[in-house]
Amino acid sequence: MDNLSYTFFCFLSLFFCLLFLVYRIIDQRRHQCCYILDYQCYKPVDGRKLSTEFCGEVMKRTKNLGLNEFKFLLKAIVSSGLGEETYAPWMVIHGREDNPTYEDGILEMEEFFFDSIEKVLSKTGISAKDIDVLVLNVSMLSPSPSLVSRIINHYKMRDDIKTYNLTGMGCSASLISINVVQSIFKTRKNVNALVVTSESLTPNWYTGNNRSMILANCLFRSGGCAVLLTNKVALKDKAVFKLKCLVRTHHGGKDEAYGSCIQTEDEAGRVGFHLGKNLPMAATKAMIDNLKVLSPKILPISELIRFSVVSFLHKMKKSTSKGVARPMINFKSGVNHFCIHTGGKAVIDGIGQSLGLGDHDLEPARMTLHRFGNTSASSLWYVLGYMEAKKRFKKGDRVFMISFGAGFKCNSCLWEVLRDLKDGNCWQECNIDNYPPKTLVNPFMEKYGWIQNEDISTFKIPE
C-alpha cells in the first residue's frame, strides 16, 4: 500500500470513527429524554367529603380545644381557601382521630394506589409487567413491607423491577421523584417508570391544642397521583409532556429554615406537624435561590439582558433616591402556564406576587386548593389536571411547576406540552364549567361566627 492509499485509509477510518461517535452521542441524548405518557389524580368517594357542617363536628369532639383554639380555628379555616368538597381519611369520618389503627393508614393508601395506578395503566395501554422502575413518595407512613412492596405484590410486577421508597420528603417530594426517574433515564435506555405520590393523613392527624400544629389539620387533605413516564423514543408520539429542566434547592443547613416546617411533639407528647411563623420567610429565600438557577435555563436571552440592565439602573437610582420600585423578571416571556403548589392561600398569593402573575395564572392553584385542599406532594398534578380540563394546553406550550416542602426545600421544573390536551383527569367528574365559582367565601364564619362573641369564663363546647 503506497503512502497516499495509507493516508486515505487512515483518514477514512478516522472519519467513520468520528461519525460513529457523533451517532452514539445523539442516540444517547435521544434516549435520555423524560416523557410523561399520562397521569391520574385520585378522587375519593363522596362519603369522605369534609363539609362545613362536618368540620364543625370534628372541632367540637376534639376534647383538648378551648374557646381561644376555637377562635383561632375559625379564623384559619375561613381564610384557608378550602371549599366544601375536600376529602378526609375514613378514621376522621368515623370519629376515630384519637386512636387510628395501623390498618386505617394502609387502607387510605391502598384505596388511592389501586384506583389511580389502575386507571393510568389502562389509559396508556402499558401493562404492570412493563414497568421497569417504581418510585413512591409518602412522607409520614413507612410500614414493613414497604408501600412499594404492596404495589408490586398487588400487580405481580417483575422480579427485576427497580424500586425507590421515599419518606420524609414533604410537599415537594413529587418533583424529587421525577428527578430520580430523570437520573435513571440518563443511564438506561428504553425504560418505563411509574411515580406514585401521596401523603398519609391517618396516623398524622393532630388532636392537641398547639396552634402551630392545629393549622395542619385545616390545610391538608387526602389525595394522590400516579404518573407514568418513559424515555422510549418509540413512545414519544404517545407522550403528553416532555421534561425540559428541573432544579432542586435545599436549605436544610440553615436552622431557621430547617425548623420552620417540622414533625414534632407538643407539651403533652402528642405528635403533630409544626408550621412556624418564619415559614413564609424560609419559603421566600428558598424560592429566590431556586429561581436564580432556573431562570437562565427557561427564559429567553432578551429577557435576561433586559432584567440585568433594569436591575443595574435600579441600583444606581437606589443610591440617590428612596422608594424606587424593585424590578421584576418577566417569567411569562418563557412560560405559558404556572403550576403552583397549593400550600395555602397565602402561599399561592405570595408566589403570584413574586412572579408578577395575574388571576388567570393563579386560578388553577386557587381552584385546586378550594376543591381538593393541600394534598401535599400530589397537589401539583391536580393543578395540572385543572388546566387540562379547562383546555388551556396547546402543543408547544411550556408549563412551570414549583413546590415547597419540609427540610426546607424548593423544587421547580419546566414541561413542554407535546400535543393539545383536554382530558381533564379527575376534574372530569367535578363539572369543570362550574369553576371558578361566583364566590370563594367560606361558610364557616356564617355558621360559627358566634364563637367570636363568647366569654371564655362561661364558654362550653356545644353538644
Automatic annotation (TrEMBL):
Molecular function GO labels: fatty acid elongase activity
EC class name: transferase
One Pfam assignment: FAE1_CUT1_RppA
EC number(s) stated in the UniProt entry for this protein: 2.3.1.-
Keyword Transferase (UniProt): yes
Keywords: Acyltransferase, Membrane, Transferase, Transmembrane, Transmembrane helix
InterPro entries recorded: 3-ktacl-CoA_syn, ACP_syn_III_C, FAE1_typ3_polyketide_synth, Thiolase-like
Domain FAE: 28-315
Recorded superkingdom: Eukaryota
Pathway(s): Lipid metabolism; fatty acid biosynthesis
Reaction(s) the record says it catalyses: a very-long-chain acyl-CoA + malonyl-CoA + H(+) = a very-long-chain 3-oxoacyl-CoA + CO2 + CoA
GO biological process, one term: fatty acid biosynthetic process
Any coiled-coil regions, as ranges: none
Membrane-crossing residue ranges in chain numbering: 6-26
Annotated catalytic residues: 171, 250, 337, 341, 370, 374
CC per GO annotation: membrane
Residue span(s) of domain Beta-ketoacyl-[acyl-carrier-protein] synthase III C-terminal: 334-416
Family: Belongs to the thiolase-like superfamily. Chalcone/stilbene synthases family.
PANTHER family reported in the protein's UniProt record: 3-KETOACYL-COA SYNTHASE (PTHR31561)
Name by which UniProt lists this protein: 3-ketoacyl-CoA synthase
